Amino acid sequence: MLDLEQLALGEPRYDMTREEIQAIYDLPITTLVYLAQSVHRRYYAADEIQMSTLLSIKTGGCKENCGYCPQSAHHATNVASHGLLPVADIVSAAKEAKDNGSSRFCMGAAWRNPPKKGPQFDQVLEAVREVRKLGLEVCTTLGMLDEDQAHQLADAGVHAYNHNLDTSPEYYGDIISTRVYQDRLDTLQNVRKAGMTVCCGGIVGMGETKEDRVGLLHQLHHLAPHPESVPVNLLVKVEGTPLADKEEIDIFEMVRTIATACIIMPTSRVRLSAGRTQMSDEAQAMCFMAGASSIFTGDKLLTTPNPGEDRDRALLKRLGLKPVEAGATGHHHAHSASDAGVSSQAVH
Ligand code: SF4
Q1: pLDDT at 337 exceeding the cut of 60
Q2: Is residue 346 part of a domain?
Q3: Which residue, 259, 287, 264, 290, is CA-closest to 274?
Q4: Is residue 343 part of a domain?
Q5: Which among 90, 93, 84, 87 is positioned nearest to 58, based on CA atoms?
Q6: What's the number of domains the chain is made of?
Q7: Would 336 be classed as within a structural domain?
Q8: What is the spatial distance between Cα 235 and Cα 68, in angstroms, rounded to a whole number?
Q9: For the chain, what is the mean pLDDT?
């Protein structure tokens, strides 16, 4: 039997069983969303949405075979590949992102791991230092890292490193075969050791079962500390990828995944990430009610379509929500129990 009051008001836990998380996931959606929103507003302002921009700084030709990804060299897609962008181009994209209301700038490179020889990694470090000077929170997603690379990124000013677990350990092999789950966990550990915050989530709608979604949530929950940032992506089906013909998932599964993430990782910022162009305004609003408090803005998310600034601004206005200012953390500390609304939740 779930103790809803403990879930709503208790300290973050790291020891939930898969069964407990499944029971939360399966709650009536009214209870689930209410509980998630109650937990969310203990730590975050209820009316704020943090805006991030994700730029692909090196596109396509990746050696990995992630079944969802148009940038894998294993799949024949229409992605226009390009090498590492010059630092000046990255900085000008970051300035534009800031002008459009983003407080976090993420740089993604389609690498299995950043090259250990040659000038490319130094170029990334230089871009990080320059973007940091703009007052933006810097996030990178560059594939697997060794300890030394993680430290160099941290020293250059990377705030967060994104590395997704994607799905449950059981389903992982159906989606990717060029690496194993433990490789991901090892990189996450190197990120932690270097002192960067962790951005780690997954993708919904890849043909996984409900139990797989819970399995992913269970893995994330057992990372201690929880990832500071948990992106929840809806699969964007891209022609030429092995997952292009997967059946549409019921959107309420996305809402449930987000809500459960918020409840079991209360201090984490849960992000409504890829796939928003496939979602109605109402579905997106429901994800916000379920505790998602961040979106990615701009016309593209790495290589896949995204709603664009105007549409997002209009949606937030209609919903009475506002962006978190650049430089602000948007992270609130616990209010009283009654404030909590209770008496007795790209990619690499
Ligand atoms: S998701 Fe990342 S690691 Fe996987 S194929 Fe795409 S770019 Fe490569």
Answers
A1: no
A2: no
A3: 287
A4: no
A5: 84
A6: 1
A7: no
A8: 7
A9: 91
Q: Which atom of ligand 1 is nearest to the CA of 109?
A: 7
DSSP labels for 231-250?
EEEE----TTSTTTTPPPPP
Candidate of 66, 140, 162 to mutate for ligand 1, largest count of ligand atoms within 8 Å of Cβ: 66
Statement: residue 49 has pLDDT above 60? yes
Hey, which of 51-60, 186-195, 337-346 has the most confident mean pLDDT? Answer: 186-195
By the 8 A CB rule, do 168 and 198 touch? no
Residue range 140-199, pLDDT digits in tens: 999 999 999 999 999 999 999 999 999 999 999 999 999 999 999 999 999 999 999 999
For 301, the token pair is 């998310």
Nearest CA residue ID for atom 2, ligand 1: 348
Local confidence band at 118 (pLDDT 50, 70, 90 cut-offs) = confident
Assign 35 to helix, strand or coil: helix
CATH number, residue 108? 3.20.20.70
Q: Are strands 322-323 and 304-305 parallel, antiparallel or unpaired?
A: unpaired
Ligand 1 centroid to Cα of residue 297, in Å, is 21
Instruction: Enumerate residues 6+ apart whose C-beta is below 8 A from 119.
Output: none
Domain of residue 200: give its range. 2-331
And the tokens for 51?
A: 């805006």
The shares of helix, strand and coil residues in the chain, as percent rounded to the nearest 5, are: 40, 15, 45
- Residue 341 domain-assigned? no
